[in-house]
Amino acid sequence: MIDTHCHVHDRAFDADRDEVIARARAAGVSAMVTVGEDVEDSIRAIETAQRYELAAAAGIHPHQARNAPGDVASSLRPLLNLPGVVAIGETGLDYYYEHSPRERQAQVLRAQLRLARETALPVVFHQRDAFEDFVAILREEWHAGMRGVVHCFTGTADQARVYVGEFGLFLGIGGVLTFPKAQPLRDAVRAAGAATLVLETDCPYLAPVPLRGKRNEPSFVTHTAIKLAEVLAMPRDELAAITDENALTLFRT
Ligand SMILES: [Zn+2]
Question: pTM of the full predicted structure?
């Protein structure tokens, strides 16, 4: 299995990162993408990826858009050629917390979409409570051949159809899928189908049931995989093979 979205470079893992990554490998997690949230955090993600032979994404999260450098592209571009970097992100819009002004979130997102087009790298998206504006920006900035994933997908079947049908995006499925109240999400994911899905943890956040509330880590992706196989009425090894294949298609360099 591949954990397509984690933050193992986060300081939540400073005390025991070696053990966390060893546990992930022992649990069958063959690859991990550790995702940056601003320029400095992306550098940490890349250094961690290089040390542990992981992959990294470099980008600016909508929460951090207000602190983003004036020229986003010039700040990120030098990072994108470094060994281990497989994607731009995470980037997007977050109107739930709205830690950054909406207009600035949109500018920083557009800059990263243009950089993705220039570099042919896939994009890791974070979208919360901003579906309409997010899709409107994609309609202007997305071009044939671009690749991406909507991480921590928690939307409706209709939203999934737009992401997949209109833009060819993958949907990142994490611990929320296992939460008791997430039946609408399980229905949307079933409607979307296995060919559109990749697994993720978003650790240290959002640990799946039965570990909900604990610090999440990549080895816990197994619990999400078990639930996803159940939702799709599919054997676990088949689900793992399909989602791995999707992840490789998404992040191929
Ligand atoms: Zn994340």
Answer: 0.97
